[in-house]
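Discussion board: Methods & Data

I've been asked by a reviewer to show the raw model output for two of the constructs in my manuscript, not just the figures. I'm not sure how much to include, so I'm pasting the format here to get opinions. Each protein appears as its amino acid sequence followed by a line of discrete structure tokens. Is this the kind of thing reviewers expect to see in a supplement, or should I convert it first? Here is construct A:
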Amino acid sequence: MGERLVNVDRETPMLLPVDMRQWVPEDDLVHFVISAVETMNLSTLAVNQRGSSSKRYPPRMMLELVIYCYANGLFGSRRIERATYRDVAVRYLTGDTHLDHDTICAFRRENREAVKQAFAEVLRLAREMGRKVSNQSMPRTSEREYPVISSRYRLKRTIRPSVSRTSMMA
């Protein structure tokens, strides 16, 4: 008796849902991050002026993107850029726009303190609401030095963070 296998036809056009929200579960972290950032006063955020793209993105969306990616272990600008193409939740968050890595990097550099404060606030809100955010997904912010690994998994350099992990979680 022959096995019945599912027919995998990659030549047939794949139609994505009209609404990206259909692919993002209701309890996904992206919804929490968007809601948390919407409650914050972000008048100090700078609008991106640089980057290799001439497009200017809303600072609130850029902050949501950075916080969501940090919470999912994506720290490099190039990896975040790649996620705007590959990750459905990131595509939903960005409205299916694709930021280039220079724009992401410039935003983080120009808004360093605001990003730190907003990330700490999101963690505080998550703790208050009982939402679990694993230690593995938080950016490394311990007092001791730790290695930064390149995309080829070789030790690139060692850095010392300026904010302690305990102060961000407190």
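Construct B, same format:
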Amino acid sequence: MADIEEIKKNWEQFESIIDRLDSDDIKGMINDLGERIAISPANARNTDKGSEDGGLVKNTLEILKLSRMIDAATGKQCNPKTLYKIVILHNIGTIGTVENDLYLPQDSSWHLEKLGMVYKINPKLVGQDKIDLTFIMLANYGVKLELEEFQAILSLRTKEPTNHYGKVLLAAKILSN
């Protein structure tokens, strides 16, 4: 379980990045979903990175750091605001939908002990893809994506980036695991 001070520190850093994006739609979404985002895990299984409370924000900040390093190593081809937006938003569907959390506390000792499932998938969202949930969440809050931003986030599912942002995001995501 993550330390409450670490969760708070990561959340403050996350919020400061949101402020730099100058987007009322994104700020509104983050303000509305704040606590859910702050404490959400990134993954359900204890062998996967970010499977603790606050894991989503912690993992997102790590991916942002890696994305900046990769972009710098490849000649700084990315607009910083666009890169930050893509990284901050790419995994927002991990919290679930507006109405339902994707990950719920595990209530099965067998699943925890035998499978390492710290969280269980919400039965209402079983089979839902995190990328689809991200796009649904963004649409619910009126967050608009440019084509290159959409393609970059989609590249996490296809594993075939169609632009430099997608290459940077996919590489950072792979390195973060």
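Answer (T.O., handling editor elsewhere):
This is acceptable in a supplement if you add a one-line summary per construct. For B, something like: Residues 4-176 form a domain with the Hypothetical protein af1432 fold (CATH 1.10.3210).
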